[in-house]
Specification:
Blueprint lengths: L1 H16 L2 E9 L6 E2 L11 E7 L1 H5 L3 H4 L2 H5 L2 E8 L5 E9 L6 E7 L9 E11 L5 E6 L5 E4 L1 E2 L7 E2 L1 E2 L3 H22 L1
Parallel strand pairs: 1-8, 2-11
Antiparallel strand pairs: 1-5, 3-4, 3-6, 6-7, 7-9, 7-12, 10-11
Length: 192
């Protein structure tokens, strides 16, 4: 009897920990709103999109400068799949084995290059309808459904088009800090 109970427990535990296979479909085209860079040009052949989930509680605590730092944001992100654009369009799907929880919010992290490392602009988008389905199913990430722009900007007058926000290089922040320090020192010397 103990063996039967033990085997039942093992079977139940493995069934609970089994991951669902879901389909994630990214749709961003002229009908649903192209994702554009900050100069309002479509991403073209160079667009790259990471799909996954964020540690939302930690993400909400980040300042704008922290949101502009790729490594900081990346530490809060779990990637499930990626897509590349064709002529400014994201229209693709992929099956993944999802290790998370049904109902969890999915995010599209979009870059203006073929990889995050070579990008100089990115934006993070979400939607109340972009959630992980129960068990098997399809999560459709349609750009016209975006109602949560975590980082980036929308183009005025065109609610279905989304622009990427420039990501300052760390050297830019260092230069700004240097100029401020120089100005502070000059001001102190004048007063002395």
């Amino acid at each position: 009897m103990k063996k039967v109970s033990f085997l039942t427990f093992i079977f139940a535990a493995s069934a609970i920990s089994a991951n669902a296979t879901i389909t994630i479909q990214a749709i961003s085209n002229s009908a649903t709103g192209l994702i554009l860079d900050s100069s309002e040009q479509s991403l073209g052949e160079t667009g790259y999109m990471r799909i996954g989930v964020f540690d939302e509680a930690a993400l909400e605590l980040l300042s704008i400068s922290e949101l502009a730092d790729y490594d900081t944001v990346d530490s809060l992100f779990t990637e499930y799949t990626t897509f590349t654009s064709a002529s400014g369009n994201f229209l693709s799907n992929t099956n993944i084995t999802y290790p998370g929880t049904a109902g969890e919010n999915l995010y599209a992290w979009v870059f203006n290059s073929t990889s995050p490392e070579s990008a100089d602009e990115y934006a993070i988008f979400g939607s109340s309808s972009w959630t992980v389905p129960n068990d098997t199913g399809t999560a459709n990430l349609v750009s016209s459904q975006i109602n949560n722009v975590v980082f980036g900007s929308t183009i005025a007058g065109s609610p279905t088009n989304y622009a990427l926000s420039p990501v300052p290089e760390p050297s830019t922040f260092a230069a700004i800090a240097g100029v401020l320090a120089l100005g502070f020192t000059a001001t102190r010397r004048r007063r002395a």
